[in-house]
Amino acid sequence: MSKPFLIPLLLSLLGSPVAQAMDYRIETLSEGLEFPWSLAFLPDGRMLVTERVGRLRLIEADGRLDPEPVSGVPEAFVAAQAGLMEVALDPEFARNQWVYLSYAHGSEQANNTRLARGRLVEGELQDVKVLFTAQPLKTGAAHYGGRIAFLPDQTLVLTLGDGFDWREDAQNPGNHLGKIVRLNRDGSVPADNPLRDQAGAAPEIYSLGHRNVQGIFYDAEAGRLYSHEHGPRGGDELNLIEAGRNYGWPLVTQGVDYTGALISPYTTLPGLQPPLLHWTPSVAPSSLTQYRGALFPQWQGDLFAATLAERSVRRIRLLDGKLAGEDVLFEELGERIRDVRSGPDGALYLLTDNAKGRVLKVVPAD
Amino acid sequence: MPSKAQPVLAFVFAVLLAAALGSIVQTQYNLAMLQALGAPLSAEVRLRATGLDLLGFAPLFAVLVAAGFLCALPSAAWLSRRLLPLRWPLFALAGALAIWLAMSLANALLPMPTLIGANRSLIGTLGLMACGSLGALLFARLSRPLCRP
């Protein structure tokens, strides 16, 4: 067997991520969005999309973008990585119309991630209430986390970041930097949060030791909470999140600093949760979902991670709850992908990350 | 040392010294932060980390040092010809300011708030600036004959 044939065969046998020729078609559903960040599907077929520059937009089911942004959206601090981030519908949205938004709040000198919610009524956000503001406020405009997932016990989890310059604070239980927090949907602290009774700890903390968590998904069938986070240069991680666990940043990492400097001499230490997998070199994972549609039976139950640096979507195959390899999808677009969602119609939806961002719909080729 | 090559070689040695010392400061600062979090740090781990940073971090830091020194050292040499008694303090100050300026410019131009870990704190920043001073003093020593008025 000649080498050109042997190498792909060996790669597939080793389970390495290789781009697969899939039987799909990518359609542009909507365009003209400025750095779209997050997509949510309304029960009537419309969609909500955040633009990082601070706007919440409505998209009709046929892809037409409502020219008027949703009014009543709280003002975000917009700079570098800061701005309006996640939009998520309350699991009982059809009854209560609550929409949750995460965004950077404050100023260049004092800012952090904030969570608010309001009722979506005829293109307007009403009864807006701030539910949570990560503390402390810090300078700069990097590492906000910002993704939301709902748990089956009426609570939600919000991912946060370490603010870049405060990486050691990811190990400090006294604040929210580098944490995932769990809240009741009204913003109050659940009685069974893991650090609630620990003196000096921030009661909202659900897990700690994170760098910049921009993907979280609750697999309701398996009862597992998955997240991924950006590493520095290398060391992006997919984690299985459990209450009260420490995921190690910056004590353990597979990455090094952007300068090449060591972050830590350790990749593992006792008491620190290792990742399910790490991506080195970095792919920059920006969003996580699980495919639960009918259009792509072969994708059923797999995780999908959008990536910025790799300009792809990673399909993470799961077999009986265990990782069973990866595929690199949609590299042919050559675009940074900010969000990936499994749509109610069975299609996979993507948001491209640029000033002329698009909503893309992935459907079977035929 | 040939006269034309002397300042060039002095500059190269000064950059190498400042970059190597800066790398060692960066490593020790970083390890101190990890130690404060409870990380176990044996002498072997410390030595290995220092070596890895000399390979991984020092080259990039050397670029910053060289950029800073290109502005600072000729200025210090020019000033020291006019203020001969202040020659050593002038070079020490120029070296420190060169590092501070290079890091500040990098922080302003790059997306991350602070490029170099040790530059996040006053003590780390002063440590890196001190390495710049030592590099500049080496330059002053090696290039001395040419710099005499």
Automatic annotation (TrEMBL), chain A:
InterPro entries to which the protein is assigned, alphabetical: 6-blade_b-propeller_TolB-like (IPR011042), Glc/Sorbosone_DH (IPR012938), Quinoprot_gluc/sorb_DH_b-prop (IPR011041)
Domain Glucose/Sorbosone dehydrogenase: 33-361
Keyword Transferase part of the UniProt annotation: no
Swiss-Prot/TrEMBL keywords: Signal
Pfam families: GSDH (PF07995)
Signal sequence residues: 1-21
PANTHER family tied to this protein: ALDOSE SUGAR DEHYDROGENASE YLII, HEDGEHOG-INTERACTING PROTEIN
The protein's name in its UniProt record: PQQ-dependent sugar dehydrogenase
Organism listed in the record: Pseudomonas xionganensis
Automatic annotation (TrEMBL), chain B:
TM annotation in the entry: 54-78, 90-110, 122-140
Keywords, comma-separated and alphabetical: Membrane, Transmembrane, Transmembrane helix
Protein name: Uncharacterized protein
